[in-house]
Amino acid sequence: MTFATPYPGHDTIFTWAAPALKIGLGAIDETGFELARLGAGRVLLITDKALGRAGWPGRVAESAAANGVDCVIYDGVHIEPTDASILDAAEFARTGPWDAFVAVGGGSVIDTAKAVNLLSTNPGELTDYLNRPVGRALAPERPLKPLVAIPTTAGTGSECTALSVLDVLDLQVKTGISHPALRPVLAIIDPQVTLSMPAPVTAACGMDVLCHAVESLTARPYTAGPRKNPEERVVYCGANPISDIWTEQAIVALSRSLRSAVRSGDDLAVRTDVMLAATYAGMGFGNAGVHIPHANAYPIAGRVRDYHPDGYAGDEPLVPHGQAVSLTAPAAFRFTYVAAPERHVRAAQLLDPGVAAVEDAEKLPRALTRLMRDIGIPNGIEAVGFTGSDVDGLVDGSLKQQRLLAQAPRQPTAADLADIFRGSVSNW
């Protein structure tokens, strides 16, 4: 797909960055070699207790030791990290110094490791670095240590991005830290680590990947904004030709393999396909950006009351990020269609060729809802405990995500967001 010639005074430059990648069965056992190659003598490995029981962090520590690298394990990461859980991890990191950090886990672990790396190498408080309007959005003053990310879920793409997401408990809002310095220097992608993921977790993570890809493909193009000075350029620059390549390939891989990965979790071929899709989408949205579905997901997750999803451990109420993102996606893409019809139709056709006979504006919402129903995603926000009376609060939370909403091809008002939430009470 081509990009229109920008209006006079609009931007003509986009930026694109990614970590080095090591991909394949058994790649996790080469972590120690890579840490030694980075010159690391002592590293902090950040993970969670469930993964510790699964044995993957220990396997990485053994690889490190075999290559002369001392590896200390911190396993206190919180599912859906909070400001409190990140500060706990940062306090442990003060037992350093460390030459590098290693994250073994899903997005919660990798995002925690990014924030810990920042807080242990730079002065100031966590709120200094949180995105506006929640925080001050300060840039790091000092270089961060190398971070090696080893994802164990095929979902967030956090191993490729320069973003750390967390809940601020007192404000009941999800926000993040965004800066190029947060991006891992190396991502080690080993599909074998996802074989034990329960079907509901596979489904939620897969929908997160899909929304990453489709939101990036339909994001406001990099040519849409006014010309920026070099120091004004941000991580999310808008849809661009390089991100398009990665996001389209992610959609194709998910179309081919996500349903099978949910049904047959021990099929290494489809697990590999879905894990590659997560990385492809991370390479795309980590530069182009995401928009309305992700902005809406933050208050859905942050305001959860008593929903307990299948397949997830723990007693605390939780709307998994991949579910939260997908719940308003059909209505959101119905709203943004008029701003980029070609891109919405393209995404729908890549995801589900069977929607060819549907009206163009409905192709993408239909393709999404068919997939969501097939893999067991909850049917709208009502299914995770919200009703129409919650819409105003959800809109308020979404409006706090201006960094994300700014990437939408059609800018939503509060009334537009309310319509999207109301249209997502039930999706089918």
Characterization of this structure:
This protein is of the alpha/beta class and 428 residues long. The chain is globular, with a radius of gyration of 20 Å. It is 45% helix and 10% strand. The strands form two sheets. Strands 1-8-5-4-2-3 form a six-stranded parallel β-sheet, with helices on both faces. It has a two-stranded antiparallel sheet with strand order 6-7.
Q: How do the strands and helices of this protein lay out in sequence?
A:
Blueprint: E1 20-23, H1 31-37, E2 42-46, H2 49-54, H3 56-66, E3 70-74, H4 83-93, E4 100-105, H5 107-121, H6 126-129, E5 147-151, E6 163-168, E7 173-178, E8 186-189, H7 199-217, H8 241-263, H9 268-288, H10 292-302, H11 321-327, H12 329-336, H13 341-351, H14 360-375, H15 391-399, H16 402-405, H17 414-422
Parallel strand pairs: 1-8, 2-3, 2-4, 4-5, 5-8
Antiparallel strand pairs: 6-7
Main beta sheet: 6 strands, parallel
Count of individual beta strands: 8
Element order, helices and strands? EHEHHEHEHHEEEEHHHHHHHHHHH
In percent terms, what proportion of residues is strand?
A: 5-15%
Distance between the termini: 31 Å
Low-pLDDT ranges:
none
Indicate the mean pLDDT.
95
Number of helices: 17
Strand order of the largest sheet: 1-8-5-4-2-3
Gyration radius, in Å? 20 Å
